[in-house]
Write a structure and sequence with these properties.
- The chain has 484 residues and is mostly helical.
- The protein has a domain at 235-401.
- 66% of the residues lie in helices and 6% in strands.
- It has 15 helices and 6 strands.
- The termini are far apart.
- The model is unreliable at 461-484 (pLDDT under 50).
- InterPro entries: Cyt-d_ubiquinol_oxidase_su_1.
Length: 484
């Protein structure tokens, strides 16, 4: 099956496959954690039971998605020591610290307060329970902060020196490593994407139940209507902000990774008096041209430089061996932008419907929102492909190539693990995703039940097991603990 693939390409495919599966879960749970904190706060503030119903409805989905995100993320870290051990050896002194901070300061915060968030409402009081919800939301943000800092450093490395003897990247300025030139743009753009992803999943689920209730001639619950209203407000507010953030991120990329922008725009040639904005085309890397191109003259120069006649460099100024694969970058970028414009359209439509008092009655809006439910997941994957494939042929841009980062493995070994990943991932995460969709297919109801507890108390290890009541009664005192 993979006989014509080399070890480098197989390792890249394997990492892309595992990170794609992983990325869709944090892209959902980062926004959902904040949504749950808002719902919980609204319930404690207003005492309106619909917010509690929505919290209990979505927290079950969050728990499962969070678990799948953790499991899929652990697998990725092992690949740094197997397929990408050379990269880990060279970049470890720089990226090892931030990745450890992600575990210590972010994941521990999430995991430590998750149990209180799920089961502590009736046990710790509203203040501590609300604190736990906020802590989980902050933890998800901090996870994104550290991981995106590492990823951004690989795109725009700063604050380091290269050891002449070992070839390792050694940090010289911690703050430059963390707050490298592309990090603020990538962080804000990605976080906005996670909030939009959550908003459209929530809005899609609400739209599904609004449409189903209408077909049955039933009135939707207040919780369902509130869920749809909140999701549409997020679309109205965040979608235009995201477009602005994406534009600023693109300008930053033009400054530090110009060949990526050239590939995104399909500019094989330089344009001394204004570059066209291509809407469609088939990139042809061999001939260095865009076949069947349909574009708007000079608009790309205006978007990128604010001047219709500004000169714009093309890939003809970049050596062939330093050019990214244009086909993937060109089309993934258009998919991301196209979905962003559709999100903007949904937000605008919902605002008009809200002003007319028809937000819960506009059937075509509900159908549109339902169709757009998974769009955020598609957009974040397309954006990830754009930024990561656009960085090729480098893992550390301008310094370390992908071919020089891979471990000395044979292609059959990488292929075998790739096949195993494909089979196991589709079985495990396919089942988990199917179960999440089943939970979403049921509407939130009044008096939504909380997550069930399956044990009466904490799990105890051998040596600290409490004595049975019978032994206590027979001995008239606590039983001896083995080992004491």
């Amino acid at each position: 099956m993979f006989e014509n693939f080399d070890a480098v390409l197989l390792a890249r495919i394997q990492f892309a496959f595992t990170v794609s599966f992983h990325f869709i879960f944090p892209a959902f749970t980062i926004g959902l954690a904040s949504y749950l904190a808002v719902l919980n706060g609204l319930y404690y503030w207003t005492k309106d039971h619909k917010y509690l119903d929505l919290f209990r409805y979505w927290v079950k989905i969050f728990a499962l998605a969070f678990a799948m995100g953790v499991v899929s993320g652990i697998v990725m870290s092992y690949q740094f020591g197997t397929n990408w051990s050379v990269f880990s050896d060279k970049a470890g002194p720089v990226i090892g610290g931030p990745m450890a901070y992600e575990v210590l300061s972010a994941f521990f915060l999430e995991a430590g307060f998750l149990g209180i968030m799920l089961f502590g409402r009736e046990r710790v009081g509203p203040v501590l329970h609300m604190t736990a919800c906020i802590a989980v939301a902050v933890g998800t943000f901090m996870s994104a902060f550290w991981i995106l800092s590492v990823n951004s450093w690989m795109h725009t490395p700063a604050g380091f020196e290269i050891d002449a003897a070992t070839g390792q990247f050694l940090p010289t300025d911690f703050w430059q490593v963390i707050f490298n030139p592309s990090f603020p743009y990538r962080l804000t753009h990605t976080l906005a994407a996670t909030y939009l992803t959550t908003a459209f999943i929530v809005g899609g689920v609400a739209a599904y139940h609004l449409l189903r209730r209408r077909r049955r001639g039933e009135q939707p619950s207040e919780a369902t209507k509130t869920m749809f209203s909140m999701a549409m407000w997020m679309a109205v507010i965040v979608a235009p902000i995201q477009i602005i953030l994406g534009h600023e991120h693109g300008l930053n990329t033009l400054e530090y990774q110009p060949q990526k922008v050239m590939a995104m725009e399909g500019h094989y040639n330089s344009y001394p008096d204004g570059a066209p904005l291509y809407l469609f085309g088939i990139p042809n890397d061999e001939e260095q041209r865009l076949d069947y191109a349909i574009g708007i003259p000079k608009v790309a120069s205006w978007v990128l430089k604010g001047d219709l006649n500004a000169p714009t460099a093309g890939l003809d100024t970049i050596p062939d061996e330093s050019q990214p694969p244009v086909m993937l970058v060109f089309w993934s970028f258009r998919i991301m932008v196209g979905i962003g414009l559709l999100m903007l359209a949904v937000g605008a439509w919902s605002l008009v419907a809200r002003m007319r008092g028809r937000l819960n009655d506009d059937v075509w809006l509900h159908r549109f929102a339902l169709a757009m439910g998974p769009s955020g997941l598609v957009a974040v994957l397309a954006g990830w492909i754009t930024t990561e494939v656009g960085r090729q042929p480098y893992t550390i841009y301008g310094y370390l190539t992908t071919a020089d980062s891979v471990a000395p493995l044979e292609a059959p070994a990488v292929a075998a693990s790739l096949v195993a990943f494909i089979v196991i991932y589709f079985a495990v995460f396919g089942a988990g995703t199917f179960y999440i969709l089943r939970m979403m297919s049921k509407p939130p109801v009044f008096g939504e039940k909380p997550i069930k507890e399956t044990i009466d108390g904490p799990i105890r290890t051998a040596g600290t097991t409490p004595a049975s009541e019978e032994m206590v009664r027979r001995n008239k005192g606590p039983a001896a603990v083995p080992g004491e």
